[in-house]
Amino acid sequence: MHLLTDQDVYQVTVVQLREWGHDVMTAKELGMQRALDENLLRKAKETNRIFITRDKDFGALVFLEESLSAGVILLRITPITIEDVHRELYLLFREHTENELKNLFCVIEPYRYRIRRLQEAR
User: Fold this and answer.
1) Low-confidence residues in the chain, pLDDT < 50
2) How far apart are CA 33 and CA 6, in angstroms?
């Protein structure tokens, strides 16, 4: 999968994603660690990547601004739940294709994940 991670995603998660074989770019690597949320979503969409964040504000943003609706994965993760959230993230990637995920807003929590379809205006 092609992913773009927000600056707030733990480095251990970035490392895990890369170990699973995913193509991961980080906001920091792109010099976008201080970028506006809208610009990060635009970059994800322009580079055809799924956006991963810990920031709940992206949920409202992708549903209110159709033009920014790139696939988003919201991690509800803390240092003590990393393994459980990583396990659910792994399951999400196993059960859904990259193209499916580009049309979804996903929330990953310990022991479960939830998905919601984004607008079909692509």
Assistant:
1) 121-122
2) 7
- Taking only the tens place, the pLDDT of each residue in 70-94 is 799 999 998 899 999 999 999 999 9
Helix (H, G, I), strand (E, B) or coil at 36: coil
Residue 53: which residues within 8 A CB-CB, separation 6 or more? 5, 6, 8, 9, 72, 73, 74, 75
Between helix 57-64 and helix 37-46 the angle, nearest 10°, is 60
- Give residue 122's pLDDT: 40
30-54 burial code (b ≥16 CB/10 A, e <16): eebeebebeebbbbbbeeebbbbbb
**Residue 68, pLDDT score:** 66
